Amino acid sequence: MIQIHKKIKSVCLTSLRLPVVMILLCLIVLFTVPFINVFHPKTLTQLKPIDLKEPYVTFQAKQLTYSGYDLVGFAGKHYGYYYSLEKGKCTFFLVPISDNPKKELKNYWIKAKITEHDSSFDEMTESFAQDLNWDKESLLEATTPYLISNEAYHPIIYMLLFWIILIIFLVSTKKFIQSFVGFFNPNLYPVCSFLGKTVQQEILTEAQEELEQGTYIQINDMFITENYFIDLGKKRVSVIPLRDIIWCYRLGNFPLNPLNQNHNYSINYMIRNGSMISIGNKTSDEALEIINAIRATEYDIIIGHSDAKRKLAKKRCE
After folding, report:
1. Cis omega (within 30 of 0) for bond into 241
2. What is the secondary structure of 12-41 as a DSSP string?
3. Using alpha carbons only, what angle is made at residue 287 by residues 255 and 249, rounded to the nearest 5 degrees?
4. Which of 45, 223, 266, 308 has the most CB atoms in a 10 Å sphere around its CB?
5. What is the pLDDT of residues 126-156, one digit of tens each?
6. Are β-strands 143-149 and 245-252 bridged in parallel, bridged antiparallel, or unpaired?
């Protein structure tokens, strides 16, 4: 026997999988990516000791000297290599510069990421050592093994990533709650999103009774009873009172899966309050058969799509 509640439970159980996976992935990203350290960099009063576990820092350099070498960074922004001498050690900084870089920067506040030396840094130190009539190895021995880089500090990118992850997390949590609640209480599953929960419970009871009477038209997972359209799809269950339908038509859709060329039609309903309900993932024949079945009911429903029918349907809206 066809059981709407049982189908709702099955759909909700299946629908729980993706939200759970997405919630777990979002939590992993939120706890793995150092968002707090990026948005609130640790303030350093001195360069030693350096904790690479919290690489994003805010630091005030007493004096920085321009090396004469530049780097074109993200989005074409220019940066200059500056250095600071402290207790016999040279620490290099990569800071934003204008067309005429200053030779010295005093009491300079910088937000940056502490990074290891990269290929660009190696090229710079090799040329800089030649300018000093020194060899690269000796220069590196007197240089700290890290770079204080503003070029590597991209809080906007992290902010965008944070909001994307947060939105995905909230949407997934909402879908998880809906599926979880629907599994344990099918009467709360939104089979009629335009109706209240109390009315919806009555509709589910009446629709189930009409199915049990056996007087219905069935097209695969869709049913037309005396007073209801019922779709027991794999991903969603919909129950729509025929009395609330003003306009019905099928519409061909561009398939997201190019291998699925058959199930690319939707059955669209305009309800009395003017809202539209789309039942997708149907074949052309399925959609045509269900529309013909609706046409044969006693309800005055506009069938087919055209501008004239759309205007007529809007006039009938409450």
Report:
1. no
2. HHHHTHHHHHHHHHHHHHHHHS-HHHHHSP
3. 95
4. 223
5. 998 888 888 888 888 888 888 999 999 999 9
6. unpaired
